């Protein structure tokens, strides 16, 4: 496993981040397709043994049970000082007022709840899961600065939002001498490339580490257009991200299949290699619910796509409406 600096920090992370949304109690939250703890632990252990030191979860995944499972597994399989543990805040965790969002009250309550579930004294990377239109940016940024100063968080990051919003937040932090975002976790894959327009150039200019979510488009890039999986049939987010009737998207999926066939490798390797080779990208966030998922992801890091292959993969793409911001 190779390691890179996360953005402009001195923090070393593996070139792959294991996304842990797939690990959680199926009956808790809205992800009925998740793996329970006994089925999740082998994947986390295999990732550690493969040299992956970067793990991403969120307070909202499976109603907090993802954090619980990940925390227990990493305590058993890894040394805490070698692990880069990331989680998120924003999504609603309880009914009623102040049950979600990025207010000072919510951030202070949720970081403590995440630490309890993870079984750790600090989080390496604490990310705002989405932009909060109901809270002043200054309130959110000062609260994040304070949890860093309190020693509960080492670095802070952001997730899907408009580039102007991210740029303004970076500017506010700089003016006030507050802890600055070091990462952007955004939606980027061959079926959704809108982040190439403004967000990726902004991150490169500002030294922000990019850690894309859904680099395989929820598996759409790894199988024939007409095929489905348990997750694709039950994941309530997929319909808002990808369409099965968009001819251009179908052409992209077919291009991945063609390049993979010529290379003699699984489609997942080709799709992930495309994301990993993006100059702004530090570490794509990959999911793993089958043994070969980790094997393919690791192999993708060694797959160098030619300029001709990249052109063939990108040629069918057409502009898409913004997706993944809510």
From TrEMBL:
<keyword id="KW-0560">Oxidoreductase</keyword>
<feature type="domain" description="NADP-dependent oxidoreductase">
    <location>
        <begin position="15"/>
        <end position="315"/>
    </location>
</feature>
<dbReference type="InterPro" id="IPR050523">
    <property type="entry name" value="AKR_Detox_Biosynth"/>
</dbReference>
<dbReference type="InterPro" id="IPR023210">
    <property type="entry name" value="NADP_OxRdtase_dom"/>
</dbReference>
<dbReference type="GO" id="GO:0016491">
    <property type="term" value="F:oxidoreductase activity"/>
</dbReference>
<dbReference type="InterPro" id="IPR020471">
    <property type="entry name" value="AKR"/>
</dbReference>
<dbReference type="InterPro" id="IPR036812">
    <property type="entry name" value="NAD(P)_OxRdtase_dom_sf"/>
</dbReference>
<protein>
    <submittedName>
        <fullName>Aldo/keto reductase</fullName>
    </submittedName>
</protein>
<dbReference type="GO" id="GO:0005829">
    <property type="term" value="C:cytosol"/>
</dbReference>
<dbReference type="Pfam" id="PF00248">
    <property type="entry name" value="Aldo_ket_red"/>
</dbReference>
